[in-house]
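Dear colleague,

Following up on Tuesday's group meeting, I ran the structure prediction for the two-component complex that the binding team flagged. I've pasted the input sequences exactly as they went in, so you can double-check that nothing got truncated or mislabelled along the way. The structure tokens for the whole assembly follow below. Feel free to forward this to whoever is handling the docking comparison.

Inputs:
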Amino acid sequence: MSTSEPAPTPTGAAPQSSPGQGRGEPVRPAFDRSGLVPAVVQDEASGDVLMVAWMDAPAYRATCTTGLATFYSRSRQEQWVKGATSGNYLRVREVRLDCDRDTVLVRVDPDGPACHTGARSCFDDGLVPVEPSGAGQSR
Amino acid sequence: MSTSEPAPTPTGAAPQSSPGQGRGEPVRPAFDRSGLVPAVVQDEASGDVLMVAWMDAPAYRATCTTGLATFYSRSRQEQWVKGATSGNYLRVREVRLDCDRDTVLVRVDPDGPACHTGARSCFDDGLVPVEPSGAGQSR
């Protein structure tokens, strides 16, 4: 999670290269004070961002070890395997942590629509009209 | 932000189709109790997820109106325009909200590396070794 820039590269802090390669236990994210990290789910084939949800430590571990994307419901206060009810599992192809280790990127092969509305992605119907003043359009 | 499944489609709640098309003010996300929403930044050309950061209302509005991705630093408690110091601006091509309107997806054309480490993406060096037990590999 980028919080400012430019930030000095931490020395001896969060790993900047493949963290924890070769360990038996999956590399642990930097969970927030609530014990959670946001997890971005991306379709490996299309590159589309499908959804964003939260993971606690057990959900993260389950995602890394079962091959099925698993999250933590803040409202129900429990883990949930995406697809357990709908059948639309998200099959884990790759897990990445960001440079601060406080965000998870899960690249998946989805069995079906990722959104509870039936849409392929939770972002499919959310286009926001933007009217840049011009600064963003020129290079 | 998906919090459970299956969730009934809300009636008269968060819009399920293009929210606020045609309004003068950008559609407002559902900010959390801290007044923030997570924002996922995706490279429009490559589809790569570049970084995840936070937005408050002014940062979101700036992102939608200036065409330059703008975030909120929780540590410094202020907005920051990505690239203002490094020159590596993220030029906004598209803004989307998810089905619950509590996550922003910003598709951008980046002027340079998105990560403060100099990496193209904050996730470039964060591959986590996963050893699915098999459930995720079969269909």
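Chain B touches chain A through 82 residues (CB under 8 Å).

Cheers,
M.
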